Inverse folding.
């Protein structure tokens, strides 16, 4: 594991995430969101979970970011946030951050280096997915189908409204 | 020196807090969804880091949890954005402060 690569990826990811959380224009925030997720995928590559990194790029940068951009285009009237920062939210976020940091640095067993290991192949992932995890896999398939149908029904226009307009 | 598990956890805690900040302090519904997605990504990063630094990385438990979590997050994003569009059709706004019809 390369520490220079780690520092570069960490700075890129956190800067893009901060931009996604704080930029005023919605479309800029969506693009920085995509950059932040490329950074998270790079972390997965660094941790030798290449398959998860690829899935992350396909799903988030390929699908979710495009979905967010389409939603921004469809709800065009207010593409800018009011800019008023809710200080209560900021205080809660900083408190949670402090609590997490306290818990991490309080645990001495965490400062270990990664053990040497053989790389995890896609073949092995497929085998495990089809044997030990076959029930979760089927359930996720069901959830994705239900989400697809639900999303379609939610955005479908009301028949009567369409007729009235015509 | 090579990165330890602590430093990965610090990065993911920072990512989680940024997501929490976006979800709690922004008024636009799409920003709240972006914040939730950032928090989910931080959780996935934790799963993968704990898997990689565990004594037996040959058991791909963390990888499996991360893959399923990404699938659920994609479904959540699709339904959430569809709800944003449906709400926009009804109220002509996506500002969550103006969606207060259930307020007593």
């Amino acid at each position: 594991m390369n520490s220079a690569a780690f520092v570069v990826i960490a700075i890129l990811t956190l800067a893009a995430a901060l931009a996604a959380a704080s930029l005023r224009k919605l479309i800029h925030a969506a693009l920085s969101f995509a950059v932040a997720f490329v950074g998270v995928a790079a972390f997965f590559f660094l941790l030798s979970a290449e398959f998860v990194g690829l899935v992350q790029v396909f799903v988030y940068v390929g699908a979710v970011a495009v979905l967010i951009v389409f939603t921004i285009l469809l709800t065009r009237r207010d593409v800018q946030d009011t800019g008023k920062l809710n200080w209560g939210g900021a205080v809660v976020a900083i408190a949670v951050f402090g609590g997490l940091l306290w818990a991490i640095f309080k645990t001495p067993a965490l400062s270990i280096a990664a053990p040497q290991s053989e790389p995890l192949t896609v073949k092995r992932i497929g085998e495990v997915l089809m044997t030990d995890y076959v029930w979760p896999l089927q359930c996720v398939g069901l959830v994705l189908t239900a989400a697809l149908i639900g999303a379609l029904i939610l955005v479908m226009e009301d028949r009567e409204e369409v007729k009235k307009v015509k | 020196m090579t990165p330890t598990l602590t430093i990965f956890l610090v990065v993911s805690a920072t990512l989680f807090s940024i997501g929490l900040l976006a979800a709690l302090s922004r008024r636009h519904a799409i920003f709240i969804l972006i914040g939730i997605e950032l928090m989910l990504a931080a959780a996935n990063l934790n799963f993968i880091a704990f898997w990689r630094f565990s004594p037996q990385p040959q058991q791909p438990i963390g990888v499996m949890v991360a893959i399923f979590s990404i699938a659920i997050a994609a479904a959540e994003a699709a339904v959430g954005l569809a709800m944003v569009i449906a709400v926009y059709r009804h109220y002509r706004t996506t500002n969550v402060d103006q969606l207060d019809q259930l307020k007593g």
Remarks:
- Chain A touches chain B through 85 residues (CB under 8 Å).
- Chain A has a mean pLDDT of 86.
